Every structure is written in structure tokens, then in C-alpha cells.
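Table S2 (text version). Query chain:
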Amino acid sequence: MGKALASSLTVGLLIAAGYLSRRLGILRAGDERVLNGFVYFFAFPAFLLLKLSGVEFDAHTLRFLAAGAAPVGLLLTFLLGAKVVFRLRRDTFFFLSAGSVFGSLAFFGIPFIEVAMGEGEPVELAVAMIAAVAPLTVGLVLVLLELYGMEGIPVRRAVWDVSVRFSRNPLILSLLGGIALSVAGVQLPPFLRKALDLLGGAAAPVALFSLGVFLYGRRYRRLPFAFGMASLRLLLLPGLTLMLSLALGLDPLSREVAVLMNGTPVAVNMIVLSARYGFFPEEMAALILASSLGAIVTMNLWSFLV
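Corresponding C-alpha cell output:
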């Protein structure tokens, strides 16, 4: 529990530093776009490419990936059942789905795992989970947003638009590149590994600092509802992951990484996507705030319980 608490304090301080940079006028509104651009287009692609190139996709790893990806499908099945039983509106179902499956695995999960569990195998497992879960959740969210903004438009067009976005997404491209290098057994030259390591090393702290910059000065509506909704991401999803991890017989280290990664808060990128599509922007900002603050508590609890 001590390491988890120390990781929460570390994460909290980095977020607070970003928040204070806006509060004290050191950074201005919109500066987080520069930070996010650096992390999104350079730091995290370098980090993912380097880490994934060293992952061995054996039977154990595939079981671990199943324990990470399958709970997302179970959560969606639960939400679909709730839609039928309670006759939820179409846009409400979209909001519940997009606001619960798209987690901050890279921006929040990796820094937490690094501090709480150390580098090496825990981080490699966390990166492997990103490779399994991120394409699924990013694709689902983009499809939902396209359908939300194009009511009456054929699903085929929405799927095509998502495919085009995927082909230009630096995180997806780096994931595919890292997996290809790993499967082919290709070793990167030392100078390239060092360059990627230096660039990728900035990803986690800059991402958390940027989250603090992002959280400052926004309007947050219906916070009690947001905290309640955040429980889908922070409690239900990691709970499903824990049960499936036990059923698959994962070792304690793999089980803890899987649960923590699926207990990360809602991805900050959702605020950008929600603004672009007019998809509940104020409610999504409140959800990101609630889940980010709540995750500092719940991820410690899951670490202790697992």
C-alpha cells in the first residue's frame, strides 16, 4: 500500500504543478495543446514503439491481454442490457459507453505503474495491454461519435471514416510498428533505442502535467452525477478484470497490472473529441475531472486488494 500511496502522491504533484502553472499565470489557456501535441505525436509513439518491440507475445502474454480486453466487451454488454431494460435514449447510451470504455491507459496508467510497481516487467505488461485494448476502445469511441453526429448516415460511412483516422493516428501506427518489430525479432540499433528512450521518457510526466493544465478554468456541471458515472470506469471495469484474471489463472503481478490499467480514469482526449463532435462537452469535462480525482483513491484501493 505504501508504494501505491507514493505513486498517488507523485501523480498528484505532477497534476497539481500543471494546475498551478495556469493558476499563477505561467501558462495560458490553450498552452496544453502544445504539451498534448508533443506527447501525442512524439513522446508516446516513441515510448510505445520502443517498449512493444521488446515484448514477447507468448501464451502467458496472450492470456494477460485477454484479461484486459474482454472486460471491456463485458462492460459494453452490461450497458447494452441497461439500455434495453431501462429504455435509455440513444444519446444517453452513447455517452455512457464512450465515457466508460476509453481510459487513460497511456497518459495515466503508465506513470502510475512505473511509480507503484517499478520499471521492467510491470511496464512491459502495461504497454502490451495498451496494444490490446487501445485500438478496440479508440475505434469504438470514434464509431459512436461518428454515429452520434451523423444520425441517418449509413454505418458503412462511419466505419470508413474511422478507418481513415486510424491510418493517420500516431499511437496506432506506433503500436503496430512495435508489434511488427517484436514478432519479426528485429533489434533496433543502439543509437535509435537511446533516442526513443530519451523521447519516450518525457511522455509520462508531461502527460500528467498537461492534465493539470487542462483541468484549470473549465466549467464543471453535475459533478455528483459525474462521480457516479466514473464508478463504471473506476470500480465496475477493474472488478470485472479481477474476476476474469482469477478465472484465467494469471500470476499476481499480471493480475495487478491488468486491474490497475483497466481502473485508469477517462482519457483526457475525450474532451477534445467531445468538443469536435458537440458530444456533451461540459458533462465530459466534469467526468474527466471526477474520474481523474477518483482514480487516485480507487487505484490505491485496487492495488491493496489485488
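Notes on Table S2: The chain has a mean pLDDT of 85. The longest helix spans residues 121-149.
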